[in-house]
């Protein structure tokens, strides 16, 4: 097989979207690792800018303050699926961005158009840099807004109950009912925002993960990616 054909097959850009608790991150990282692709968690970038604002005294209930501060932090994302990293102004933010405080504020910050414009540009530049080797990019508006020309778009879904059970399993001592309500509230905020709402792209393949194990979801997505590679 020629090098040209091999390169064409490997240089696939995959967009994986969906709400929280559908297995998006675990699936994306595993698929990228298995297929030798780069990986980008775009949600971590929105968490990172939210964490920076909370740390630096920005009133995250004030869209104007958020917009004014949006360009100040320098966010750098690593794309190794085995060990994805994210730094803000040179500081490791992988732990701090996962706190409940950040989780509760990230929707409000990410809804501000100036934030989305900046982060979207960052995501596109990372995807472009990794395009030759191929990349899996996961988020909520990748297939619709960030990378509308992605080679393969996948939209993961699951019932609120299944998603809440998964999230509760990740967080010790969490209340299942409260987790479910929080997820539904987050869905409404993400789907209802004016700029780049959470939505399934018209040409995306929908995968309902409610009754599937993580391994089954990974295998399903790997099959879809390999099918796209062969067709390329």
What does this structure look like?
The chain has about 230 residues and is an alpha/beta fold. The protein contains 10 helices and 8 strands. Strands 2-6-1-7-8 form a 5-stranded parallel beta sheet, with helices on both faces. Strands 3-4-5 form a 3-stranded antiparallel beta sheet, with helices on one face. A hairpin with a 2-residue loop joins strand 4 (about 85-90) and strand 5. Helix 2 packs across helix 10 (about 215-230), helix 3 (about 40-55) crosses helix 5 and helix 8 (about 160-170) packs across helix 9. The longest helix has 18 residues, at about 115-130. The radius of gyration is 17 Å and the shape is globular. Mean pLDDT is about 90; it is low at about 1-10.
């Amino acid at each position: 097989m020629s090098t040209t054909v091999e390169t064409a097959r490997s240089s696939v850009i995959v967009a994986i979207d969906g709400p929280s608790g559908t297995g998006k991150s675990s699936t994306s990282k595993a698929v990228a690792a298995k297929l030798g692709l780069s990986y980008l968690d775009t949600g971590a970038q929105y968490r990172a800018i939210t964490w920076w604002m909370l740390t630096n005294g920005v009133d995250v209930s004030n869209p104007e303050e958020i917009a004014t501060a949006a360009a100040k932090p320098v966010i750098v994302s690593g794309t190794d699926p085995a060990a994805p990293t994210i730094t803000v102004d040179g500081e490791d933010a992988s732990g701090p961005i996962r706190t409940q405080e950040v989780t509760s504020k990230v929707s409000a910050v990410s809804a501000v158009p100036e934030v989305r414009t900046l982060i979207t540009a960052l995501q596109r530049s990372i995807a472009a840099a990794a395009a030759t080797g191929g990349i899996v990019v996961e988020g909520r508006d990748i297939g619709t807004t960030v990378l509308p020309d992605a080679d393969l778009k996948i939209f993961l879904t699951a019932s609120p109950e299944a998603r809440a059970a998964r999230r509760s399993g990740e967080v010790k001592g969490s209340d299942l009912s409260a987790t479910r309500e929080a997820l539904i509230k987050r869905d409404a905020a993400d789907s209802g925002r004016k700029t780049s709402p959470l939505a399934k792209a018209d040409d995306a393949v929908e995968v309902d993960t409610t009754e599937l194990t993580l391994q089954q979801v990974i295998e399903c997505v790997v099959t879809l990616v390999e099918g796209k590679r062969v067709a390329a």
